[in-house]
Every structure is written in structure tokens, then in C-alpha cells.
Write a structure and sequence with these properties.
Helices cover 77% and strands 0% of the residues. The chain is mostly helical and 155 residues long. The chain is elongated and about 75 Å long. The two termini are 39 Å apart.
Length: 155
């Protein structure tokens, strides 16, 4: 993995500043339907692309996300983005931007629950990860070292 350098953070800050400035300066009667439609389609394509690239990297190389809990949760988190913006993108493409069927509405609501569960699972995973430091991690390292010492003594 490469380190994220300052140009990324500068571009991220500039984009955030532009978004904030536009949010406060656009007239209240501006029609932003097209912006929303493009954003929904772009979010869907980006999440699907992320899943496709990560899966291809696993099939063709060593990055098999289905073998690790972090990789699995990351893919499920990306799938939760698909579940949220997928019904919106479908509505934009085929229903003039309106979620007008019960199954599409149900998928849209379910996507939010999936997102909440997956991001909570990722947070829990990183919380309990011994590599994050803290007293619990130190105790885990201590117990693992003690376990290794006991294994070394037993033939």
C-alpha cells in the first residue's frame, strides 16, 4: 500500500470547500435534479467498480477479499452503497427519478439498514483489532507472547 500524500488531501479539501461554498451561495430555486441524478449514477458505478476491481484482483492475484474479515466487510460496505444508490439510480434511469413501486422502496430502505450494519461491523472490527493499540491490545499481545512461550516449552 502506498501512503496518501498531501496532493490528495489538498484536492479533497478543495472539493469539500467548493461543495460547501456552492451549498451556501446557490439560489434556493436552483434545479439540482440533474446533479442528483448524475451523482446517484456515479456513486453506483464507483461502488460496483470497486467491487469488480477488488474481486478481479483476488481472482487473478493474491488480494482475495473473501479470505479475510476486513476484505469481506469492505466489500459488504461497498455493496451497502450499491443497495442505497441502486434503487435511486434505477429510478433515475427508468422511472423519471421516482421510487414508485413497493419492491424498489423496500430495497431502498433495506439498503440503509445494510449500510448501518456493515459500517458498524467495520467499526467493531477495527475496535477489536490488536494493531490499534490501547490497553486491550497490550493485554492481547501479552497473552499471545505467554502462549508462544508455553508452546515452546511443550514438545
Amino acid at each position: 500500500m502506498k501512503r496518501i500524500r498531501w496532493p490528495f488531501w489538498a484536492a479533497f479539501a478543495a472539493g469539500g470547500a467548493a461543495w460547501l461554498i456552492l451549498g451556501f451561495t446557490l439560489p434556493y430555486d436552483t434545479n439540482l435534479n440533474d446533479v442528483f441524478n448524475v451523482a446517484a449514477l456515479a456513486a453506483f458505478a464507483a461502488a460496483a467498480g470497486c467491487i469488480a476491481v477488488y474481486t478481479a484482483a483476488g481472482v487473478l492475484g493474491p488480494a482475495k477479499w473473501w479470505r479475510t474479515n476486513v476484505g469481506t466487510y469492505l466489500i459488504l460496505a461497498a455493496a451497502s452503497v450499491l443497495a442505497i444508490v441502486g434503487p435511486t439510480a434505477w429510478a433515475v434511469l427508468f422511472h423519471h427519478g421516482v421510487i414508485d413501486t413497493w419492491w424498489l422502496a423496500w430495497a431502498y430502505i433495506g439498503g440503509h439498514f445494510l449500510a448501518a450494519a456493515m459500517w458498524a461491523a467495520l467499526a467493531w472490527l477495527w475496535l477489536r483489532n490488536p494493531g490499534n493499540g490501547g490497553a486491550a491490545a497490550a493485554r492481547i499481545r501479552e497473552l499471545e507472547a505467554e502462549n508462544e512461550a508455553l508452546r515452546a516449552r511443550c514438545p
